[in-house]
Amino acid sequence: xxxSVSSQSKACAxxxxxxxxxxxxxxxxxxxxxxxxxxxPNRWRILSALTLGEMRVGELAEAVEMTESAVSHQLxxxxxxxxxxxxxxxxxxxxxxxxxxxxxxxQEASEHLDEPDD
Amino acid sequence: xxxSVSSQSKACAxxxxxxxxxxxxxxxxxxxxxxxxxxxPNRWRILSALTLGEMRVGELAEAVEMTESAVSHQLxxxxxxxxxxxxxxxxxxxxxxxxxxxxxxxQEASEHLDEPDD
DNA sequence: ATAACACCTGAATACTTGTTCAGATATCAA
DNA sequence: TTGATATCTGAACAAGTATTCAGGTGTTAT
Lengths: 118, 118
Known about the structure:
Two copies of one chain form a homodimer. By secondary structure, chain A is mostly helical. The first copy, chain A, has one domain (25-114): Winged helix-like DNA-binding domain superfamily/Winged helix DNA-binding domain (Arc Repressor Mutant, subunit A), CATH 1.10.10. The first copy, chain A, is built from five helices and three strands. A three-stranded antiparallel sheet of chain A has the order 1-3-2. In chain A, a hairpin with a 2-residue loop joins strand 2 (84-89) and strand 3. Chains A and B meet through helix 1, helix 2 and helix 5 of A and helix 1, helix 2 and helix 5 of B.
């Protein structure tokens, strides 16, 4: 392993790490849009409710104590970012989490937030 | 291993996974605040610039093509979320990334964004 | 066909957030 | 002390976003 960075003056995290270049405006925009979607408490509550399993819009609305309309609007946003998928069955629409990325993001953020202030 | 959820109808990601309860309003709020900070393209550009190593405010401003004032405002936000740390030396203030969480978040998001639409 | 149900959508309002400008603070050099 | 440099901050404006309300679509039951 090269020690030019890792051994002595590593005052800064990740120098030479996985990013190591200034993001283009376009890439930065895409990142921001994605994380912006996760920048709303009601969407986090909806996402966390879906960790319990698939749910209809009405059930979700009841679970997170929002109107169905508000939930529906937020679900559209989550759909756009492909964080949830849905399935029509009868007159109901069942939503569920699309993949596990949301868990990893949740855990990574939790760790960060729970870190001592050093 | 219990198979009541995992074996047959796993249409939904992560049911019974690491969250598995509706987030409290407070926790959801904290999550949203954190991710909201990452919901701005200029902040991503600043963070990515810092992956190259520590930088002064003026250098950062030049690197990301923003005014020093704008950079300073954004650095305060990043400081508040403990994403960057800083060190005064002489009349300059050197900023750098505080820890590696930002890399993991970046990679996780990249993977999600690069996923095919299935 | 009609009514009830489940969900979605557009438009308007209210709220939040980013950027700019002007000026403040703090450090260094002469 | 004076002037130059480097950064920070508060207030105001502009821009973006969430929520509500009213009404729309599509499905099921009678």
